[in-house]
Fold this protein.
Amino acid sequence: MSTTLLQVSDPHISEDPDTVARLRRVLDLPPSRRPDAIIVTGDVADNGRAEEYRAFGAAMTGGLPWIAIPGNHDHPDTLREVLGQQRCPVLDVGPVRVIGLDVTVPGADHGFLDEETVRSAEAAAAGAGHVVLALHQPPVPIGHAYVDAIMLRNPEALTALVARIPGVRAILSGHVHTPLAASLSGVPVRGAPGVVSALTLVPDPPEMRGDCPPGMALHHITEEGDVTTTFHPGF
């Protein structure tokens, strides 16, 4: 029996009620596509304010288990305090263990995987079957000058972590507001499109469009650990 993870990313919840409405659109899946859990890969809030996290939490009251990790727009301590998350949140979904990695750098848009997070993630993976790692900034370039300058700065640290954790089946990321399919040392890297807006092909100046449907990704993981990802607009 497979496990299905709904990944949403970059809702950028703010005082604008449309941001919550867009989030609700990607959470409102038909019963036939109902996931087993929800993974939110960063930029939960637009300004890192407590009231933004409270609005996000209110929208997540659908009964499904979920975890959220911070992005560069978030205030990690406020996120964790309001939403009750850990620095490396862990969610067991059937045979799959999802581990969140906080790679935020204060005052910067790029990501960095530090030793403390590496140690925490390695400990959290002990005894797991299939492992999914989730972070905000992707560990691979996508060929877009603007976002490639603000990706994970030390992907080699993530590669080393994957080598030390048996059973890593996928790496989930956000940040770039566009669907992403790549690999890192043979492990699938999957990035969900943005909820609040979508990245266009124009790199300079970078353009994010908010007049398109919000997006999401569904990851289906078989008992054997094979991963299939589909990308969808909000219904």
Q: What stands out?
A: The first strand starts at residue 3 and ends at 8. The chain is about 25% helix and 30% strand. The mean pLDDT is 94. The radius of gyration is 16 Å.
